[in-house]
Amino acid sequence: MSSVRLTAAQATVRWLSRQFVGVDGDEVPFFAGVWAIFGHGNVAGLGEALQAAQGELPTFRAHNEQAMAHAAIAYAKQMRRRRAMVCTTSIGPGATNMVTPAALAHVNRLPVLLLPGDVYASRRPDPVLQQVEDFADATLSANDCFRPVSRYFDRIIRPEQLLAALPRAMAVLTDAADCGPVTLAFCQDVQAEAFDYPESFFARRLWRSRRPPADPRELDDLTALLKGAARPLIVAGGGVLYAGAEGRLARLASAWGVPVAETQAGKGALAWDHPLNLGSIGVTGSSAANAAAAQADVVIGVGTRLQDFTTGSRALFAAANRRLVQVNVSAFDAHKHGALPVVGDAGAVLEALEPRLSGWQAPTTWSVAQGPAIAAWTAEADVAMAAPGDNALPSDAQVIGAVQRSVGEGAVVVCAAGGLPGELHKLWRTRRPGGYHVEYGYSCMGYEIAGGLGVKLAAPACDVHVMVGDGSYLMLNSEIATSVAMGLKLTITVLDNRGFGCINRLQQGAGGAPFNNLLAEAAPRIDFAAHAGSLGARSVKVGGVAELEAALGRARASDRTYVIVIDTDPAISTEAGGAWWDVAVPQVSERPQVRAARAAYDAAVKDQRTGD
Hints:
The protein is an alpha/beta fold. It contains 24 helices and 23 strands. The protein is 38% helix and 18% strand.
């Protein structure tokens, strides 16, 4: 057997560059590139290997390790998990900065390969610079923080380990059910050690995405449930988009007369104006979707985790004797909430259901009733997004309306945390999959700008509009400079409500006094436009919605990232739509407002269905 002598780092880079997948009929590298911030734990090993392989595996430099991992994850999400990226850091703080995005990728079932540097396997210089020592277990390092937030974890302490570790990592990254972050903690001395690797290890390999079908018995159960349903409802999650099943879902919804509601991850599965698209569901749901959810006797989740925002903390699906079905490629998710599980790829399941339900339709009284409900919700949303009167601070919804009126059909909106994702889930109107990119599984402040960068890498021809609150902007804004340096233009609208307005509203809704969320009047006014300009972007502060729309027009014509700042009202959110959310209120308090909120909470908890 012929072999080639390479360092472990060189072997890793060569192997990664030889892994291919099929995307839209073409065979392309699975790894689109490597985000790298170098330090003593990876610059001499992986840094040397990456420099020599730029033609096969490009390397990008960011300004913050958390941000670059967010960008990599956003890329994978926008690519519908068909391609991914790699992130490498030094040991210590560089590595642990990626723990938060690892958790984000784990929650959202998104692929990213993390290669943090690690301690010396030989322990010759033990403890090495930035090493976190465990006083009772010498085998632990700071990278063990990645274990609970990785779908697969390994520590590379010998160069020949790569022969098993790399294929295992790739199997997880490309598996529909197991997909998520992979961490290979790479001991820094091992990165530089050489080994005679079999040349066959580096042969070009094509990985195929599986579309596992469901068990026919589970399909029969679901078919029978649907045929007996009086008020069926489909809840479309991200799995619909990852399976590429949105076209089939739209056709079947029309053929069957079954209305569809969308989760955050599933938004865009149907065009917003599809006759049976009820819009968003749950805590941030439309009045049409939530009314249907409360009445439905058969609820079919397709590719959704059914987290608490979707289910109204398990109180939303309130009809007596209602049945819940979970269609999911992951058995872990399919069995949640006492659901009838249908374990399989969303597209494969819908395809198998089509002949079983040929000629069947839900009662027309149910499907026809959704038309007026959808029309009423559309009117409510129009009111929420209408421009405010003169001299009034706009709400988040009114800013969203201005952005919506200013973007083209091919634009992508990006957001993540605070009150904006809820407003966008309710109000944003997209006609196509991929036009709505909101990270709400982990609701991670700081994702927005870095995520926009990843979206632009995945969809360079699209206008990418990032909407971010001042709080998230202050947490992580460094990749504005990266976007300018890489020529990846973003349009960023910063909504400045002087603090954490969403949590301030939640605090008061739970009976609490406003505390530690909004900035005091005496606090300095932050010039976000000047700050963005200092990072190389074009920027402007606008005085209202009319000026915002004019600035968005200029941004569209700009040759680089354009940041627009607008003051907003922290007290206003869209009252239409929505559902109860379980936020525990103190049982004992001196504040009468808290006691009143607790009484309301105790009454609402009784509506939760925790036994099924």
